[in-house]
Amino acid sequence: MTRFFLLFVFLLCVFSVFAQQKHTLKIDTKNEIAEVSPTMWGVFFEDINFAADGGIYAELVKNRSFEFRNPLQGWKVKGLSLDKGELLIISENKENNPTFLRLNLLGDKTVQSLENEGFRGMGVKKGETYNFYIMAQCGNPAIKIWAELIGGKDKVIGRSDLIGGIGTNWKEYHAKIVANDTEPGAKLVIHFEGSGLLEVDMISLFPQHTWKNRPKGFRADLIQLLADLKPGFVRFPGGCIVEGYDLQNRYQWKNTVGPIENRVLIKSRWMDEFRHRLAPDYYQSFGIGFYEYFQLSEDLNAEPLPIVNCGMACQYNSKELAPMNELGPYIQDALDLIEFANGDTNSTWGKVRAEMGHPEPFNLKYLGIGNEQWGPQYVERYIEFHEVLREKHPEIVIIAASGPTPDDRNKYLWEELTKLKTDIIDEHYYKDPNWFYSNATRYDSFDRNGPKVFAGEYASHTKAGEAPESRNNWEAALSEAAFMTGLERNADVVVMTSYAPLFANKNAWQWNPDLIWFDNLNAIPTPNYLVQQVFSLNKGDKVVTITENDQPLTGQDKLYSSATIDDVSKTILVKLVNASGESQMADISVEGSRIKQGSTVVIETLTGTPELFNEVGGKNNFEKKIKELTYRSSIKNIELDPLSVNVLKIKMK
User: Fold this and answer.
1) Which of 86, 209, 567, 603 gives the lowest tally of CB atoms within 10 Å of its CB?
2) Contact between residue 383 and residue 372 where contact means Cβ atoms under 8 Å apart
């Protein structure tokens, strides 16, 4: 009985191996079909989901300058009566930062303080140092200020030294706080000792450890995740916020540069865009402005790609248009932005850049005109920008919009913008996984002599579970990987790509899915991020053919593939996506290049079940598996796991 059972198991295993269809693939390294642009895989930042304030901007204090519609939103006042005039909200007749607090301190009070709740609390870590800042002026030098971090059950988990000697003119004062506990929902309490009038503004708390340890800078762990992608470009500042609900609330870059206390705060359009996700405390302080975006791009060794308003508000909202005869200031903003980025230090805006600490130019090469506009109204406004920029800055690569979806609006714009010989056209697609699988061939038939493609916003949308991160599941990531092989195969047409949106605060989001989820203490890459990383870290320089029966793999038996050569490391990089629920076998031969017999071929694999995702604060469910095979005239018996994304690294002589 035992012998028959073992024989049955053996025959079953043999049958299952032979039942798997084996694919015979061929790479021809002499058939170089395209160069891969250094900007091929990039990132797109938009301030949505509290991605800036409450996100990558490391500021922990909400409404630090009391400029919200409710000047005390986010604050609690203790021991001082507004009714009795012991605390007054003063708004002076100045344009940028008009509001501050005037405190009439009474020395006999035991408690005189302000408490800030942060962005859904403040995340502080045990042993870390935090920098407390306050701008103040008063007439009594005996008044003292000190600050505390308060954790759960009102436990004091950190305290600053006393700040004294406050003068009669506005000045920033600074103290340090070391946290003696880790707390995701801490509060900051500022205490005041003494009597007399004290005026305060710009109350801030930043971790000392920021990205590159820059004071008042970026949150280090979130920017490190961007650095780990090695992006070719950074697109900023949006997105829909460039357009604004109306033109008054559009993004105006000039209000985001210079000293941070002079930057003009506005409400975020995402405050009330979605009625089911209202965020009444969502404002833009512009602590991160255009200077910081350029600096971040430089840090990441990525091309900066700013987008400017084209005289159109969001066409889903107010649909407001700047009249054609009033378009001049919008075009001038674009010209001044180029001067800010590239102008010498004697120019008006180059001088502003230099005064902010960067006398060298940022070497801006790309500029986007509008975000998701469509229709003839966009075309006529785009033409005005196009003609001026071509005349005054022919060195700048212009990127035009093609609407929010690949539909008739998109087709119309492609026809019109092609006539104008636009450099690059920005396409957006938020679709279900089936769309991404079926559109792996989208760019196979595009005109090679027309405008290039920027796949500027894309994400595969699946059904949501209870956790907001659940839409970023393996089903979505796998379909994006299949689509991305089509982007890479068509690198002679597609020159820039970026997933969107980039960041989401788990406790304050408006839109999902998103590439990176975080809370006040933690951040975790999604499977979509890990797929992006597979492509961005294995980009290569030239696209070569990988075929079966002389045809590219674009979904046959649910297999998708692309191949590139990295000239520096002399490596063939093959992406193979198995979207099937069954494992598949493949042999790969290489023609046109000499591969050392007996050399090791490394295969890196990501796989998962369709609904699997990563939760903030949890473990990574998509650990990379690494296998090795030996090259002997070809690569034999490559087993592609079910629902897997694979990259093969083949060394050439």
Assistant:
1) 567
2) no
d(CA 19, CA 15): 6
Partners of 605 in the β-ladder: 625, 646
Task: Give the torsion through C-alpha atoms of 465, 433, 55, 67, to 10 deg.
Answer: -90
CA-to-CA separations, 437 to 222, 259, 554, in angstroms, rounded: 30, 48, 8
Residues 6 or more apart whose CB falls under 8 angstroms from that of 282 comprise: 50, 267, 268, 270, 271, 508
Residue 8 has pLDDT above 70, yes or no: no
List, in order, residues 6 or more apart from 558 with CB less than 8 Å away.
Answer: 578, 579, 580
Q: Are 146 and 161 in contact (CB under 8 A)?
A: yes
Percent of the chain with pLDDT over 70: 97
- Maximum alpha-carbon separation in the chain: 100
Q: What size, in residues, is the chain?
A: 653
- The three-class DSSP label of residue 3 is helix
Question: What residues are labeled active site?
Answer: 372
The predicted-structure confidence for 303-344, as pLDDT tens digits, reads as follows: 999 999 999 999 999 999 999 999 999 999 999 999 999 999
Among residues 483, 485, 458, 462, the alpha carbon closest in space to that of 472 is found at: 462
Distance CA 168, CA 171 (A): 9
The answer to whether 426 and 451 are in contact (CB under 8 A) is no
The string of DSSP codes covering 42-101 is -EE--S-SS-TBTTTB----SSTTS-SSSTTTTEEEES--TTTTSEEEEE-S-SS--EEE
Phi first, then psi, for residue 141 (nearest 5°) are -65, -10
Q: How far apart are CA 43 and CA 299, in angstroms?
A: 14
Q: Which of 243, 242, 293, 241 is nearest to 271 (CA)?
A: 241
> Which residues on neighbouring strands pair with residue 234, listed in sequence order?
43, 304
Tens digit of each residue's pLDDT (9 = 90 or more) over 77-130: 999 999 999 999 999 877 778 999 999 999 877 789 999 999 999 999 999 999
The DSSP output letter for 300 is: T
Q: Tell me the pLDDT band of 377, cut-offs 50, 70 and 90.
A: very high
